[in-house]
Amino acid sequence: MYLIRRGNYGQEPMLRGMTGGQINLTIDGMKMFGACTDKMDPVSIYIEPQNLKSIQATLGSDGSKLGATVGGSVDMQLAQATLSSKPVSGRAGFGYQSAWNGFNSHANANYAQQKSAYYVSLNYRKADDYRAGGGAVIPYSQYEKINLSANGKWAVGQDTLQASALLDDGWNIGFPALPMDVGSAKARIYSLAFQRFRLHERIQTLNTKIYFNSVFHAMDDSHRENVVMHMDMPGTSTTAGGFVEGNFHPSGKHTISFRTDYFHNQVLAEMTMYPEGGSSMYMQTWPASGRSDVGFYLNDVYKITRGTQLFINGRVDWANTTLQEGFGMDQLQVFYPNVQSGYQQITSAFNVKLKQLIKSNWIAEVHAGYGERLPTLSESFGFYLFNRYDGYDYIGQPDLVPEKNWSTDLTLSYFTDRVQVTATGFYNYLPDYIFFSHSSRTIGDDTGCAWRKDL
Predict the structure, then answer these.
(1) Alpha-carbon Rg of the chain, whole angstroms?
(2) Farthest CA pair distance, the chain
(3) Which of 217, 296, 236 is nearest to 41 (CA)?
(4) Backbone angles phi, psi at 232, to 5 degrees
């Protein structure tokens, strides 16, 4: 897994060259989507390392447990309240970085009783402009943010009930490589979960969770010099959903796990331009649009022999993508007169993996799979989304087909009590690859604007 630096502020995961809509980026299994059309706020920026328990990454279509994907999944699991005999525990820390006059402080505490526990985490970060080697100042690289998370856990017999909330606020966030900064980026994440243990002698666990999250993001150029035309660019994204997952043993050699989930995401991004000496101009860079998705995942681990395991899993999703009538739809009808208010699509995934113990300290794994993923709402309905790398503005294509990926990989691992060495080779083939293209027709001035024909 690699990380893409988003300014001086946050980082976005990349799996084998795939990122964005090609991978699932979730928080405790919950779907969440950023509110910036320019990808300045991947979900990962709303989580602080200090309130993480672990990160689980699964590569390729084998990561379809958390949703339709071609590149894999990254699940950021938050620290939780712990039931223990120790009533109060916690820690605090403070850091200072001279290169950008940065302050980083954090504290967390866990309060436990016999049948309940409560956890709270507070993080505050602030940085001025970064100073590179030699003392050169990198302008517009400052930021400030505060993050608060709270979690409660209650024992209900042998089962547990859990409630969580996370609030993340960032402001005055600079992006040196972009023509705009971020005035405000806010996230609110709430969830309620119930976990049952030992429902039956063959059913180990059953987890149920419902959740809601919202993101507000506002780009800002008011502090920039030599701005040709001032623009306000707020965006919102709200997601609600839930899932049920569990595992059971139908026989001594099979362990079956499943997950069924649903989410609905709604987005709107606006732009108001204020030309000097002229009237303001308004458009929706993300028209009011949304997506509802329901999926089912099934995985079987078959123990062939003591040193040989076979993994087989599959997933199917049905999605309904909607475009609200009104201003945003009217915009797209200029380029797509037959644009519809709803698009239904089905995606699927299937994977097979064989894991073999070779001798006593060698393990070989071979995997083959197929996966699909839906076009993002930007790829479907985006309207004049500026690409900093080539200077073009891009327009989505509403009737894009799902992206597809055939993949295979081979992994060899050698391990001892003190050393582990792993070598992996992989191959991906994407017969339907979503990528932007420049139309031969342009609109506007000499710099040119192009719309997506096959994003």
Answers:
(1) 24
(2) 78
(3) 217
(4) -105, 130
Number of alpha carbons in the 13 Å side-chain half-sphere of residue 216:
9
Provide the CA 345 distance to its chain's centre, in angstroms. 21
- Which residues, listed in sequence order, are joined to residue 189 by a DSSP beta bridge? 166, 213
46: left (phi over 0), alpha (psi -120 to 50) or beta: alpha
The fraction of the chain above a pLDDT of 70, given in percent, is 96
pLDDT digits (tens, 9 = 90+) for 291-311: 999 999 999 999 998 889 999
Pick from 9, 65, 62, 1: nearest CA to 34: 9
* Of residues 208, 235, 340, 228, the one with CA closest to residue 276: 228
CATH superfamily of 88-429: TonB-dependent receptor, beta-barrel domain (2.40.170.20)
Q: What are phi and psi of 316, to 5 degrees?
A: -135, 140
What number of other Cβ atoms are within 10 A of residue 50's Cβ? 19
Residue found by looking up tokens 């672990």 in the block: 54
145-168 pLDDT, tens digit per residue, is 999 999 999 998 888 999 999 999
| Distance from C-alpha of 216 to C-alpha of 186, rounded to nearest angstrom | 5
> pTM of the predicted model, to two decimals?
0.91
* Distance of alpha carbon 366 from alpha carbon 353, whole angstroms: 6
User: Domain residue spans in the chain?
Assistant: 88-429
Mean pLDDT of 350-354: 96
Q: The tokens 């076009």 sit on which residue?
A: 375
More confident residue, 46 or 276: 46
> Which tokens belong to 66?
């958390």
Residue 391 has pLDDT above 90, yes or no: no
**Residue 113: closest CA among 161, 153, 164, 163:** 153
Average pLDDT over residues 312-323: 96
Average pLDDT over residues 342-367: 93
